[in-house]
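Collaboration report, partner site 2.

Our partner group contributed sequences for two proteins of shared interest, and the home lab folded both. The records are reproduced in the order in which they were received, starting with the first partner submission.
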Amino acid sequence: MGNILRKRLFLITLCMILGYTFLCTSAAMAQKMTHTVQKGDTLWDICEMYYGDADLWPKLWQMNPFVTNPHLLDPGDVITLFDRKMIDELGLSMKTLEPSIPTGSTDVEISIVEPETEQTTEVEPSAIGVDLKGIIDIDTIGHLSLTEPSVMGRIFASENANYILTTGDTAYAIFDKGVVVNPGDELSACKISKQLEHPITGKDLGYTVSTLGKIVVQEPAGLTVKRGEFFNKENVYKVYISLAYRPIHLNDPIMQFQEVSPCVLPVSMNKEWLDNIVTTKDQHELVGQYSIVYLDKGYNQGIQKGNLFDIVKINIVDDPEDETVFEGKGTLILPDISIGCLMVLDSRPDTSTAIVLSAKEVMYNGIYIKGLSWIKPPDIIKTLARCPLE
């Protein structure tokens, strides 16, 4: 009788242990896995460390929207990692050992203890982007403005009485009242389009601003005569045309110079997006590979520099099963046809400038675009040169 009782107690204890182990394992599966950022960590490194694939970082960034720069993380921040379901869906495996779960914990913190080594000089990590300077001159891409652009002044005369100016010429600029400039300031000579119409709605769209060249403020110049006395003309300056991309004319407006880096970090879209190319550089109707195009949405609407868009044709055909005597065939909407890809080069509050990276056929202003979301960057990105981001 005593042996039977001991066997029963043993079986009960064994079941309790197995049940506790199962419950702990289930709890571990249900917990969020996280990584606490150490100095020098990047999303690139974290994906390489846990999954053996650094190219997964855009998906990890989507899961951690508080991160402003995926390659410059703040020590102490807690990064949410892929859960077990996503790991299985992606066909991944964790490179780390199973974490232990502290009592009462709601998160699981995964860490890897590296063996101590001799201290070396730390090098700040740099993000890797794609280099577009071999494709376009980034300083000439211009931008779209939904309102009349604000200018600083205009070129009104030249040293040699030339009407058309180019690199190396000296000219004179008059600036608007209240505009402050100093010798050495670098500004842009520009061309502003007429008021444009939206290609789909026909409503007022705005103005495109094209950059014609760079000018450098040299010194105050010009005298004015009042009541027989000479006074300095405070808002007139001598300027030097340091670089002309196109011919610069007298009366062309002057605007602030805004530098845009040709090194772009590709960024996955974090939401569904359907929009249009609303106009192009120089208002060309046809759109092809390496065309500069403009969107009437910007970072206020969620578009970031580096976002990619699929350029698509809406695929609508007759519905073979929907036919009436009076109305004719109905319509059937099939999946969109991808005919190209573009990347955002510059995102402003309510507009963006982009480049068409690929075009399978001739396209027209007003064509539809769909935001691209990815786990691994699209193949088109792999064909571009790499560059370290500043």
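Second partner submission, folded after the first:
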Amino acid sequence: MRHIFFSFLLLFWLISVPRNTLAAEYKPESSQSPSSALLSASKSFDKSARLLVQQQINLIARIEQALSQPDPNRMRAVRGQLTIQVKAVEGFLKYQYNSPKALCTPTDSSTRLPLPENLTVEQIQIYCSLYASSSQLSNLAPLLDRLLSRRGELALVRELPLVSGERQSDPVLSIALTQYPNLGKPAIPFSTWEAIPPSPPQIIGRTAKTAIADYVPPRQPAIAPPPEALTTIETAKQLLSAAQAAFSPDIKFNDPRETFTKLDRFAYDIDPQEPQIYAKFLTSPNTGIFRVLPHTAYNRPLNTLQNRLQPSISDRYPFPSLGEAKGGFTPSLALMMVGDNFGLKQQGLNYNFMVNVGDIPLEKLDASLKNVSPQTREFFLNYQPPKQLQALQVEQRRFLSQKNQNLNHQIILADASSELNRTYLVRSLQFQLPEIIVSGQPLTPIQRRHLDQLQQMHSSDIIFAFRPVRRRSDGSYTVLWRILNQLPAPQIEDLENYIKF
């Protein structure tokens, strides 16, 4: 009886309530005004188009990186991402207008299709620019397939398991492991077994023993992106720029290349405000500011692939120059961190010695070194390098092996322990031997006619000081440096003895 009574009350309420009251509580979508529907569609178009444009910008940046990297996993990843992106753009375009090619292909006025009423002029520009850019990128598919097969000659390209994972049989474990696809992990390279680091010390005039008999280090690949790929990518970027320009000015797009450049500078370069902080010091001649990186930053890890055509860290952020270039020779401040010590990068016959002179401002040091101890001043100003090549090599090894100059209980080494706000005095001797001596090859008849020119040697002998003013968490330092004295260039008097006729 109670249920029947409540049902009767509900029926009586429905009959007594006016129809316009119920209609006001719910408005179907078809009853919305045309302007509201167009505004909602426009917002939906802008949101989807903005997402696709940003994804395409990211994809182009990843393709550019994969073209210059030896890792096949990167190439395989961007190949799949290209297919997904092209299909996503194609679906979006056909949802907005059935025939993108007919709408975006230039024709004469007599055969031109009427513009869609649901799109504004700016949206049509975005539509057609996105269509043209995606069409350009789709042309890269066969090229990426070909390059992937070439990358397979450098590293192991395994078949990917299913997305849900595949069971791998194991002779020991009772339960087989599940392997999932992972293209973010570098592929295993072929023939990159390296027992010792490259660039052994240079020894001239005699045969030196090697760490491993008949050891030849593997040569890193040289990868140059195909010109047709670069042309296609550049065209796609220009078309995509036209789409970005059609968006509202308050909409910003992220460029991964700009982000990479900023992160690269943050990792290896000085901060932009540091030159402003020390602007007064840097106005003086023969001064500069420099970030001293750990030596591992300049060395490629062993048993890894690297494109030898790509600029290294020392190419992107070169060491400061300590003089004018002469005949391809430029003395440099090749300072880096070796553990907790400051040291100069050793190349060829170059060698140096340095000492911590304490908390002496760089401005108070001059060519006479009058503000340092008499023993240090005498050694730095009066030291004479050998003039024979063999003796010079012995002298270099003596400093590098810490068989040092012991001067009145003060040790003079090729490196020094790092301390903030301390000044380090350095004397650096740098040499550029003639190529005919470094190579050790016999002279050709044509070379014998120009023997005097081929024997020309360039060198420098510089005393400078540097002062670390900031230490970062990665172990690098920001240092101020100043050239104090430019000594006469050292000479080697017996170079003719090492020429093979």
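Feedback sent to the partner group on the second submission included the following. The chain has two domains: 37-107+116-254, 257-498. Residues 34-67 form the longest helix (34 residues).
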